[in-house]
Amino acid sequence: MDMQHLADKGLVLLGCGKMGSAMLAGWLKDGLPATSVHVLDPYPSDWLQGTGVHINTDLPADPAIVLVAVKPQMMGEALPTLAAMGNGNTVFVSVAAGTPIAQFEAVLGEQTPIVRAMPNTPAAIGRGITAIIGNPHVSASALDLADQLLAAIGQVVRLETEDQIDAVTGVSGSGPAYVFHLIETLAQAGQAQGLPADLAMQLAKATVGGAGALAEVAEEDPTQLRINVTSPNGTTQAALEVLMDEGNGFPNLLARAVDAAVKRSKELARG
Ligand SMILES: NC(=O)C1=CN([C@@H]2O[C@H](COP(=O)(O)OP(=O)(O)OC[C@H]3O[C@@H](n4cnc5c(N)ncnc54)[C@H](O)[C@@H]3O)[C@@H](O)[C@H]2O)C=CC1
Ligand SMILES: O=C(O)[C@@H]1CCC=N1
């Protein structure tokens, strides 16, 4: 199975909101013909309508891939419309949080090849990271195709077991929101120290963006990079003593935040 197969058989995208649009933009940029994509979405955006893909029209009978990108709460309504494509060669790839493979099998048929994926929104600029896991009906070549599709929006990692996806959701799926909140609060702290709002925001964005980029390319690990900033008895050390406080510091706070996300992911799975 390859990209040509995808272009020939077609790709159905169920739900084209923030995640669906980010993925579709990546595929079109990578050269997937718009005519091979069929989108189902009751509220197609202006951007989507300008792409040239088929929107809410008749679907191919056995597309190569159905990419499911509706909210978990809409799944019960949206998925049964595609049940006729189950138990065949069509591979279903779902990016929905907290929706287990078993739930897809129950609606689409036990023999249906299903890949569960957890992406994140930096996908919109090709800098996402997506974790994937397939059920036993997904062939190696089908998993490779799903991997290739998701590689259009960033890095792809393969999981060993489906239950790892709850932790992945808490770290990288929801993670961009934690980092955006860090930018917001760093800028607010700068403002509280007397900086103009726009200057504080520029400093915060460039610091988080630059530190993230450095952490990705540097040979040193993040611990060493942190040490490199921290002069003995200097300003960083003073700040880190607050952030690294055992009870109220970053480690405990972030662990609690990730734990809350993971718990919610498990709750969503229970319906
Ligand atoms: N936003 C994020 O950071 C991430 C989201 N996800 C998952 O991606 C999925 C989509 O999330 P977003 O794109 O953020 O949501 P969204 O609300 O932006 O998009 C959902 C889309 O589904 C459409 N829709 C609603 N009912 C439908 C139906 N019956 N048939 C077809 N389309 C329907 C809506 O019109 C909307 O365009 C969710 O399951 C979420 O868990 C996963 C990782 C990250
Ligand atoms: O908040 C959510 O439920 C989704 C899943 C990961 C990021 N957004």
TrEMBL record:
Broad enzyme group: oxidoreductase
Keywords: Amino-acid biosynthesis, Cytoplasm, NADP, Oxidoreductase, Proline biosynthesis
Domain Pyrroline-5-carboxylate reductase catalytic N-terminal: 12-98
Binding site for NADPH: 56
EC number per UniProt: 1.5.1.2
Recorded GO MF terms: pyrroline-5-carboxylate reductase activity
Cellular component per GO, a single term: cytoplasm
Protein's UniProt keywords contain DNA-binding: no
Chain ranges of the Pyrroline-5-carboxylate reductase dimerisation domain: 162-268
Keyword Manganese: no
InterPro entries per the UniProt record, alphabetical: 6-PGluconate_DH-like_C_sf (IPR008927), NAD(P)-bd_dom_sf (IPR036291), P5C_Rdtase_cat_N (IPR028939), P5CR_dimer (IPR029036), Pyrroline-COOH_reductase (IPR000304)
Subcellular location: Cytoplasm
Domain of life: Bacteria
Protein name: Pyrroline-5-carboxylate reductase
Organism: Thalassovita mediterranea
